[in-house]
Amino acid sequence: MANTPGTAAPQSGIYWCSVCKTPVQFKAGEILPVCKNQCGRGNWEFVRASEQK
């Protein structure tokens, strides 16, 4: 499921840009930014959950 920039991350973990596949870690509730590579059409796709300690 893709999440658009400007919305809150639904859960903590690794997300990647749907265009360039750059992985970034976000915490739940953190506002998802535009990709740092300026992928204008890019959304954030959840890849995997953060490891719990």
Per DSSP, the total helix count is 0
How far is it from the N-terminal to the C-terminal residue, by CA?
26 Å
Helix coverage percent: under 10%
- Order of SSEs: EEEE
Mean pLDDT: 91
Biggest sheet layout = 4 strands, antiparallel
Sheet with the most strands: spatial strand order? 1-4-2-3
**Secondary structure category:** mainly beta
Total beta strand runs = 4
What's the gyration radius in Å? 10 Å
pLDDT < 50 stretches = none
Shape by Cα distribution: globular
> What portion of residues belong to β-strands?
25-35%
Structure commentary:
This protein has 53 residues and is mostly beta strands. 0% of the residues lie in helices and 32% in strands. The chain has no helices and 4 strands. The chain has a 4-stranded antiparallel beta sheet, with no helix packed on it. Strand 2 (13-17) and strand 3 (23-26) form a beta hairpin. The chain is globular and about 30 Å long.
Name the features.
single chain, 53 residues, mainly beta, 4 strands, 0% helix
